[in-house]
Amino acid sequence: MGKPDEHRETTRARLIALGMERFPRKGYAATSIRDVLDGSGLSIGAFYHHFAGKDEFFLAILDAVSKEREPFGELVVAARPGSLREALLLGMGPIASGADGAPLSLVVADFVLQHPEHRPRIASIRRRAVRDLAGFIGALQESGLARSDRPAEQLASMAFAAVEGHVFHQQIYGEGFETALDAAIRLLEP
Length: 190
Prior knowledge:
Elements: H1 3-26, H2 33-37, H3 44-50, H4 54-69, H5 72-78, H6 84-97, H7 104-114, H8 119-142, H9 152-173, H10 177-188
């Protein structure tokens, strides 16, 4: 890869990182491209060189997040957690905590409300996330930390929905992540 290609990839990665940081602050609808670029030193021209518009940009962010998440199960299992709680804290805590504003799940809901035509793409990204989570749960099943009376894929779908629901409650009603963690433990414990 030559210098111009490296520069383009670096700029694209910076834009995606900015979007990941800034969309959760105000939501999809209330965040403008200028809000994303504010203080970054990147121009609106640089943005439009990489993305046709805000929708394409947001979908690229979701793709990047789902690809970033793929190895998390392997990393958690490699850490050899001693309990299901420890494994879930390692694997799901950072995803659900929303340390810099609302978790991306809320922004996705905002996006889909504004753009229902993108539901199939969002569903595809969710399926990939559930598949990755199933790999993680399968590894927990093999280590004896998670129940094995149901397929990992089924448990992953249920755990994803339970945690996502609790993330919404956390943001809307002020409940802590502990309630989501407890729900996931009850769902997965052997």
